[in-house]
Amino acid sequence: MPLGKNVKKKIEDINMAYNIKEKLGAGAFSEVVLAQEKNSERLVALKCIPKKALRGKEAVVENEIAVLKKITHKNIVSLEDIYESPTHLYLAMELVTGGELFDRIIERGYYTEKDASQLIRQVLDAVQYLHNMGIVHRDLKPENLLYATPFEDSKIMISDFGLSKIEDGGMMATACGTPGYVAPELLEQKPYGKAVDVWAIGVISYILLCGYPPFYDENDSELFNQILKAEYEFDSPYWDDISESAKDFIRHLLEREPEKRLTCEQALQHPWICGDTALERDIHGSVSEQIQKNFARTQWKRAFNATSFLRHITKMGQSADTEAVENHGEAAPQEKDKW
């Protein structure tokens, strides 16, 4: 069965449509490169998936791509084009240049509960949109939250939406998720639904207010026990200056029973999100220190610092190759032959 037959464009060689610039990152089955469309000179993040990785999953892939093409939301990275060559499937994704969530928090000189609340409101709005379309994300985590631009007023974007589902054929085993963000019902292998995303947003909200995760243990089985019991604390001194309203919001998202958890719609109505209960006290020092301590840079930074590189392109208007050299001493190798 042809892949994405209704929306894909056939091409013998991807280099006919794009100039491949730099490698941005790699997943288990694919690589993402910075590419410039030859006709429009528009930059995209091009995800290159070998067809052999998708063998036997063509029908699922076709359905997922159809869904991805329907998604239009200001806080979700969009799928702009699909190409199919004899050997690869190529997904041209909207390019975001503002960098990763944790990076931006650390770089700020000032950061408050209100900032965290505004971030989470954007994530809730995007996930509510998905839920209204009958889509469950299933892998929300800080690494998937990127800023659209390097500028201070940038919106936050959910990236990599749906791509993990394409790669694993739509069957999300618990092991495919990120353990610290997985809801109890997923660990129990019970039927699950939209509430798993609300749980993950609860975990992200917790981290944004203290800089460390609510559930953590070097031993996976102990970590899973904590999650299964919804066992977490608002530890002193890190939570001493955080509002009761923020803690109440998190309690309603990290609710053990999925049916008792707030929906996205309900969460958007919580006073910490839509009211004025989020404090404007500066918590930057404590939160950024904890993020750096608890989220080792190697876990959430690429070896080639692609997001920094892209932010500089946007801010300075310099060429990709020049900026890469200035940033890291060398540009990522040209790897056109692979695609």
From TrEMBL:
Pfam families: Pkinase (PF00069). ATP binds at residue 52. SUPFAM superfamilies: Protein kinase-like (PK-like). GO terms for biological process: signal transduction. Gene3D superfamilies: Phosphorylase Kinase, domain 1, Transferase(Phosphotransferase) domain 1. PROSITE patterns: PROTEIN_KINASE_ATP (PS00107), PROTEIN_KINASE_DOM (PS50011), PROTEIN_KINASE_ST (PS00108). Residues 325-339 have a biased composition (Basic and acidic residues). It is found in: Cytoplasm; Nucleus. Belongs to the protein kinase superfamily. This is Calcium/calmodulin-dependent protein kinase type 1B. It comes from Xenopus tropicalis. The gene is pnck.
